[in-house]
Amino acid sequence: MSAGSFASLDGKLALVTGGSRGIGRAIALELGRAGAQVVLSYRSGREEAEAVAAEIGGRAVEADVSDSASAKALVDETGELDILVNNAGLTRDGVLARMSDDDWHEVLETNLSSIFYTCRAAARPMMKRRAGAIVNVSSIVGLRGNWGQTNYAASKAGIIGFTKSLARELGSRNVRANVVAPGYVRTRLTDVIPEDATKTMLAATPLGRLGEPEEVAGAVRFLCAEEAAFVTGAVLLVDGGLGM
Could you state, in order of their start, the residue ranges of all structural domains in the chain? Predict the structure, then answer.
């Protein structure tokens, strides 16, 4: 893809966490197609991650970004980052009255603390170069809440507050930080949702359908590109209108 194309990322080095499947996979592929050199991390799904990397001429690295040392090593090993996309996440659903400490902590550590660890490692080099784009993937659940997901909602809402604060801290050094908040997107997680629950979700979504991972990836690409050079601290909903 030529540098003259819209939202070109030619010559950029990007790190995508949780890039082996679903939305993360789509993001890694989209950034690669835009011209970026992509490193994608994974905690499981090695074969899937390596297949994604091979498709775009990138690199797959095993890392547990919920661990501070592992997250820093990942960022350091990747090199001088132009783009950081934090997508790694998981769910451990259950009503609050029966939620275990482990389910609470695992979701918060994986979904939220990981972003703190990677952004902390990436921020100083980006600030020194006075350039960089960070995109953190939240969720419509972080804005609206959802039954049985107090841990997940707290983590995704935390991403929004964290990113807005980060945008204020880094803006004077020309480093941007934004959030993409997907609605209900067709992934392995939504594939197992009961039919009645899916119908309820679609009824509340003005566009009346599930999103596709590629539609989220397109939004991430835009926020990473020079066309979004005056966008920071934003929360871009990719949700079919659900969050209006």
Answer: 13-235
Residue 196 has pLDDT above 60, yes or no: yes
Residues forming the active site: 152
Mark out the alpha helices in the chain (DSSP H runs): 22-33, 46-56, 68-78, 101-108, 114-129, 141-144, 150-170, 188-191, 195-203, 213-224
Chain-centroid distance of CA 136 in Å reads 5
pLDDT digits (tens, 9 = 90+) for 177-189: 999 999 999 987 7
- Under CATH, which architecture does the 13-235 domain have? 3-Layer(aba) Sandwich (3.40)
Region 107-135: what's the mean pLDDT? 98
Pair of tokens at residue 39: 């490193």
Provide the pairing of β-strand 83-86 with 59-62: unpaired
The answer to whether the CB of 152 falls within 8 A of the CB of 105 is no
